């Protein structure tokens, strides 16, 4: 088959066009060649039509016929005598004009309101009356579907070659927009594409018994589609390729149906032929033989059409520049392979799927993987896929880490099919590529990996002759424990459980099996116990909450009534099962911090109403409370005490009738702890306590502080003792970190609960004054703690100050004026020390963190973020002045990665509070940075960093310049005033600040620019007007846009208007080649099917930009061939040489080229696809891009 890049050039434009017109006739040439081969293979045979008529005449009755008359091709229509038209013929022609038109079909496909079967039937009526007219209607419908305004007339269709028709249509293409129906965004695209594909499917189905074999409709239509698919106009190429491959899919289904008919009739013929001579019926044998011969002819005719379309469309377009075209080709290839394996399921076609696995676009890879799934689902295909599996298994395994989760998901499903269907399957090492994906953040991919893991476990259980998963969950639980331990992801059990939930939900809900393992004394080892407890707790939480873990929930999912019912049933089962067994588990593992912390989360998933409604639950509740109290008295770990506090908060909730019993139990626990602390308090204050006394007092306070989160501790009156202890330790500089941190927490919780009690009940003014005095005293102690050397004490004091100042602020009592007495405002010294804490300990890089692990760095950063957020809350709620935010704004650029989201939110909220004051605060932060720079050695680098900060802050003013007008003017006025403020040591040292202020000039309105410019000239001394910062600032006020660089002159932004600027870097062609290409004498665009050929001597002149290959592309040896078209390049030199009178023609031609894509192709060798980096598509081989094809990118 002749390739576009292999044609030799001629000297004249018309000769070149004639040569290129042969491309679209290659389709008919290949069909004729196939027919000649078929005739030589079968020898001398009677004509098909005569033999068919003879077979039909020999059929005795309709019931005896094996092929209905509808299945037989119709006879060719009789030739019309053109010498004189009869009145009847004129009437038929008049009625034909009223038949369906291209516009009718297009509107039906675009809207999708009518059934495609009806549309096709109406078109068939038109075609039956006049096949030329009917085919013309179909062609114009396809042209209109491409978004082209042109119309193919009857004269054009009968007298012009396909290449000439395509060239004419290209000139009449819609140049107003680069969009066409298949590229229109929105739901209309999906509807039109689906309807167009449905139209093609119904068209073939309606013609499968007759018109498919008329040797006119489909050969002619597919020949035109082949030419259009080779066009550089993207709309033509995309639409025609999609329609052609859909037609080919329909033809493949017809061919498969014919093969089944042939096999059925051949069996009947063999049965009839095997009978004795007495039983045989000669007429029957002759009838069957004629029918089988006719079906063979039809099958071979279809095969020739399919082969020509496959080589003319698919072989070129599966590597097209446009990923949508490549995806459509691969999707249909999957259908062909599955529908007609006799013709397609071979190594020659499977190689395309293997190559496309390396495509750079995820939609193409996705369609390729889905096509392979359809093949591996068929057991009879597995033998034919052995070579493909061995060749591309490594690539498929690497795709489980595809950057697109949807592709990786389908790859995992494909590997499961390979594992189940092939004899070799996957080795354990190969399966190891898939196992870690159960912890992926994409839930679909994780569930697919879990499905693979589940079936792998099931297969291993069958090999080890264990019980089936359906008969008992013990085998599954054991394997999950082993997998969880081996994977060493000990902190991600929630993700493993969520991944397995859909496929193994019944096994994970087997609470009886899990608790039996845990309560068995000789059952499992310690490591397995830890894994099982974590898996069990995560399964309990997943069943009761019905929500995926953090990172896997995409939006808020509303549970359906069915899911809600299942959730309630699971919670009831969990409660009924664990209420009697949980105290036993807590007692067994009470000494293990990690295990007991997890087990304490189980009661939070209970239906706690069951303690009140069910009978015999009082003993279980008493056992649970006893175990919780024992755990609190036994442990000092913060995680264990925090878990106990959460459980105490739930059990003491007033909504339950048993809450009084919980209050009593935990009240007694607090009595014991407070007595323990008070027994050591006097010795601690006197300084006579030893290390054991300090330890016991610290532990008691730590447990009280942990329980104070859930229960009111004010009744135990621990505040005074804690405050005295803190004051004595700060004054004597004796710092016991654990003791002081616990004392700070206990005192702070006392004040917080006192404020809550004040709101809930009316206190006297005297009591309020006492509370306010306590708050003031505690804030002084915390202020003293900000300067201690111990980081834990310092950070705890800062966090508690932020909480208490917000709790006792004016905003908190705004709705209750009677509580105004409780308002406490921070002193100036406290404000300054809190700001200094930010600068010293938050906005700083910890050098010691370089030696610790990544988890410690993340924990440290999170702690700093909490501290910064607490300080910012004080600013946003008015506890601190807005000017206090300067210490935050100054670090916006430098620490954007760590705190950028928090600082951005503060800037946004400050604009809502007071826009003008917020802008002045921004200016003040820049002024402070500039002043700090002046105190040190001034450098351009420091000034550049401040300018970068100013750029980032300027973007926070948004795009509504009228709304930001007053704040921006205030900012500039403050900045100008600061710049011309003279100091005692040096006059006008702040003038360089105007360079920083230029970053805000582009946000000003023109009226304000002039006003500020006049203000600058009035404030600036005459001698300073010529200084560089002043001139730069005035230029920024005069300009309409943001200055790119203060060092640029006007010459840098202006360009020669006579020389057009290219949109991107392009290869250039010398002037002689440009002149010889005939681009100025013709408006025909450079299309691969309508290109004007270059003279041979021009190609031999050494022009590397548009060389054409003289060798045809071989589909047998898959040689790498690069065929390129010579497009008119331009450079400034060659453009200036063009005559002025031809400039308009060039511009017109370039406008036409805006519709053109480069679709040059390169046949890749199979070895080129060994890795992702070797994936080559046409977008990588474009050496001569069109002038305006960026409209399509």
Automatic annotation (TrEMBL):
Residues 1068-1080, 1119-1137, 1171-1187 have a biased composition (Polar residues). InterPro entries: ARM-like (IPR011989), ARM-type_fold (IPR016024), Cohesin_Scc3/SA (IPR039662), HEAT_SCC3-SA (IPR056396), SCD (IPR020839), STAG (IPR013721). The keyword Iron-sulfur does not apply. Keywords: Cell cycle, Cell division, Chromosome, Chromosome partition, Nucleus. The keyword Cell cycle applies. SUPFAM superfamilies: ARM repeat. GO terms for molecular function: chromatin binding. Component of cohesin complex, a complex required for the cohesion of sister chromatids after DNA replication. The cohesin complex apparently forms a large proteinaceous ring within which sister chromatids can be trapped. At anaphase, the complex is cleaved and dissociates from chromatin, allowing sister chromatids to segregate. Belongs to the SCC3 family. This is Cohesin subunit SA. It comes from Knipowitschia caucasica.
């Amino acid at each position: 088959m002749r390739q576009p890049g292999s044609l030799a050039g001629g000297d004249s434009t018309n000769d070149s066009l004639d040569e290129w017109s042969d491309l679209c006739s290659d389709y008919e040439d290949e069909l004729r060649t196939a027919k000649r081969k078929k005739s030589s293979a079968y020898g001398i045979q009677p004509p098909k039509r005569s033999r068919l008529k003879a077979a039909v005449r020999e059929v005795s009755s309709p019931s005896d016929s094996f092929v209905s008359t509808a299945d037989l091709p119709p006879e060719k229509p009789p030739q019309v005598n053109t010498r004189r038209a009869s009145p009847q013929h004129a009437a038929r022609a008049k009625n034909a004009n009223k038949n369906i038109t291209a516009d009718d079909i297009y509107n039906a496909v675009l809207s999708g309101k009518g059934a495609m079967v009806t549309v096709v039937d109406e078109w068939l009526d038109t075609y039956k009356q006049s096949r030329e007219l009917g085919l013309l209607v179909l062609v114009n419908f396809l042209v209109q579907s491409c978004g082209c305004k042109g119309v193919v007339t009857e004269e054009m269709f009968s007298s012009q070659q396909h290449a000439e028709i395509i060239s004419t249509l290209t000139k009449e293409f819609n140049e107003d927009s680069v969009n066409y129906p298949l590229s229109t965004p929105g739901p209309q695209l999906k509807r039109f594409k689906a309807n167009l594909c449905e139209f093609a499917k119904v068209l073939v189905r309606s013609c499968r018994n007759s018109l498919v074999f008329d040797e006119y409709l489909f050969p002619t239509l597919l020949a035109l589609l082949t030419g259009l698919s080779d066009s550089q106009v993207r709309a033509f190429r995309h639409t025609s390729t999609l329609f052609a491959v859909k037609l080919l899919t329909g033809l493949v289904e017809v061919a498969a149906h014919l093969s089944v008919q042939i096999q059925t009739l051949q069996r009947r013929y063999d049965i009839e032929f095997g009978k004795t001579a007495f039983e045989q019926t000669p007429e029957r044998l002759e009838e069957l033989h004629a029918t089988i011969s006719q079906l063979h002819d039809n099958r071979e005719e279809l095969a020739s059409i399919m082969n020509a379309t496959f080589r003319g469309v698919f072989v070129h377009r599966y590597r097209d520049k446009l990923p949508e075209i490549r995806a459509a080709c691969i999707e249909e290839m999957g259908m062909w392979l599955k529908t007609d394996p006799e013709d397609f399921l071979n190594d020659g076609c499977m190689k395309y799927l293997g190559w496309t696995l390396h495509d750079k676009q995820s939609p193409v890879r996705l369609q390729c993987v889905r096509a392979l799934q359809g093949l591996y689902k068929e057991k009879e295909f597995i033998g034919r896929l052995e070579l493909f599996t061995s060749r591309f298994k490594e690539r498929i395994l690497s795709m489980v880490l595809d950057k697109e989760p949807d592709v990786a998901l389908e790859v995992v499903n494909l590997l499961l099919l390979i594992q189940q269907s092939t004899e070799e399957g996957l080795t354990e090492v190969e399966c190891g590529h898939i196992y870690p994906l159960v912890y992926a953040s994409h839930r679909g991919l994780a569930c697919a990996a879990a499905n693979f893991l589940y079936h792998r476990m099931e297969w291993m259980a069958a090999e080890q002759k264990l019980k089936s998963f359906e008969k008992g969950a013990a085998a599954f639980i054991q394997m999950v424990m082993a997998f969880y331990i081996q994977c060493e992801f000990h902190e991600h059990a929630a993700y493993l459980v969520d991944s397995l939930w859909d496929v193994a939900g019944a096994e994970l809900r087997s609470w009886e099996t899990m608790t039996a393992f845990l309560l068995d004394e000789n059952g499992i080892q310690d490591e397995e116990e830890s894994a099982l407890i974590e898996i069990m707790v995560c399964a309990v939480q997943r069943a009761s909450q019905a929500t995926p873990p953090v990172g896997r929930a995409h939006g808020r999912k509303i549970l359906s009534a069915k899911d809600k019912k299942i959730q309630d049933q699971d919670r009831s089962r969990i409660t009924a099962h664990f209420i009697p067994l949980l105290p036993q588990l807590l007692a067994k593992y009470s000494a293990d911090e990690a295990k007991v912390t997890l087990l304490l989360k189980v009661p939070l998933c209970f239906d706690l109403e069951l303690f009140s409604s069910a009978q015999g639950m009082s003993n279980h509740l008493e056992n649970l409370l006893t175990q919780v109290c024992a755990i609190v008295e036994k442990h000092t770990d913060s995680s264990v005490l925090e878990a106990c506090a959460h459980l105490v908060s739930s059990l003491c909730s007033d909504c339950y009738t048993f809450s009084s019993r919980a209050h009593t139990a935990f009240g007694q626990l607090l009595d014991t702890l407070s007595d323990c602390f008070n027994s050591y308090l006097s010795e601690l204050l006197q300084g006579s306590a030893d290390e054991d006394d300090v330890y016991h007092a610290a532990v008691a306070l730590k447990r009280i502080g942990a329980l104070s989160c859930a229960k009111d501790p004010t009744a135990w009156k621990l505040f005074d003792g804690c405050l005295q202890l803190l004051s004595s330790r700060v004054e004597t500089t004796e710092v016991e970190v654990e003791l002081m941190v616990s004392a700070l927490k206990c005192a702070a919780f006392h004040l917080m609960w006192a404020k809550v009690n004040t709101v809930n009940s009316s206190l006297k003014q005297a009591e309020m004054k006492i509370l306010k005095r306590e708050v003031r005293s505690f804030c002084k102690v915390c202020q003293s703690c900000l300067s201690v050397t111990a980081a834990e004490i310092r950070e705890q004091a800062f966090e508690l100050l932020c909480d208490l100042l917000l709790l006792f602020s004016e905003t908190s009592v705004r709705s209750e004026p009677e509580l105004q007495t409780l308002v406490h405002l921070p002193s100036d010294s406290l404000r300054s020390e809190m700001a200094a804490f930010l600068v010293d300990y938050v906005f700083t890089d910890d050098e010691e963190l370089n030696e610790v692990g990544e988890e410690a760095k993340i924990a440290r950063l999170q702690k700093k973020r909490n501290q910064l957020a607490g300080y910012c809350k004080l600013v946003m709620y008015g506890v601190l002045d807005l000017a206090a935010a300067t210490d935050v704004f100054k670090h916006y650029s430098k620490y954007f990665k760590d705190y950028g989201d928090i600082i951005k939110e503060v800037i946004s909220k400050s604009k809502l509070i007071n826009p003008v004051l917020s802008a002045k605060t921004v200016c003040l932060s820049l002024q402070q940075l500039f002043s700090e720079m002046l105190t040190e050695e001034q450098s351009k680098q420091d000034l550049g960093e401040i300018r970068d900060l100013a750029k980032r802050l300027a973007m926070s003013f948004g795009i509504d310049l009228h709304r930001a007008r007053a704040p921006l003017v205030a900012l500039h006025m403050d900045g100008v005033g600061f710049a011309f403020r003279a100091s005692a040591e040096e006059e006008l040292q702040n003038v360089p600040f105007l360079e920083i202020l230029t970053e805000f000039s582009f946000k000003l309105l023109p009226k304000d620019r002039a006003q500020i410019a006049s203000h600058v000239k009035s404030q600036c001394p005459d001698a300073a007007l010529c200084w560089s910062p002043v001139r730069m600032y005035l230029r920024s006020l005069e300009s309409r846009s943001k200055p790119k660089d203060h060092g640029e002159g006007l010459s840098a932004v202006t360009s020669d208007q006579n020389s057009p600027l290219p949109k991107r870097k392009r290869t250039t062609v010398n002037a002689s080649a440009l002149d010889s290409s005939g681009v100025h004498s013709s408006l025909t665009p450079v299309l691969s099917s309508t290109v004007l050929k270059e003279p041979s001597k021009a190609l031999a002149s050494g022009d590397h930009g548009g060389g054409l290959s003289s060798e045809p592309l071989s589909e047998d040896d898959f040689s790498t061939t690069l065929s390129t078209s010579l497009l008119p390049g331009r450079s400034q030199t060659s453009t200036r040489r063009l005559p002025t009178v031809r400039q308009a023609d060039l511009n017109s031609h370039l406008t036409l080229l805006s519709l053109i894509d480069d679709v040059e192709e390169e046949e890749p060798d199979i070895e080129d696809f060994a890795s992702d980096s070797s994936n080559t598509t046409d977008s990588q081989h474009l050496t001569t891009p069109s002038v305006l094809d960026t409209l399509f990118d």
